[in-house]
Write a structure and sequence with these properties.
Elements: H1 6-22, H2 25-55
């Protein structure tokens, strides 16, 4: 594997810094929380429906 030159490292560092700065971390946390809640509700609903199907 070849090493990166100073120009490549500078470009990579600038790109990482600009992307890091553009994230809104509160929205990211909110989205992750909503995904967990949605997955939980979906799982519980499928388990409830599966239980009702077995009884019949």
């Amino acid at each position: 594997m070849r090493s990166l030159s100073n120009v490549q490292l500078g470009t990579l560092g600038g790109t990482v810094c600009s992307v890091w700065n553009s994230f809104d971390w509160s929205n990211l946390a909110h989205t992750a929380l909503m995904a967990v809640i949605g997955a939980s509700v979906s799982y519980l609903t499928s388990r409830l429906l599966q239980g009702r199907r077995r009884r019949r």
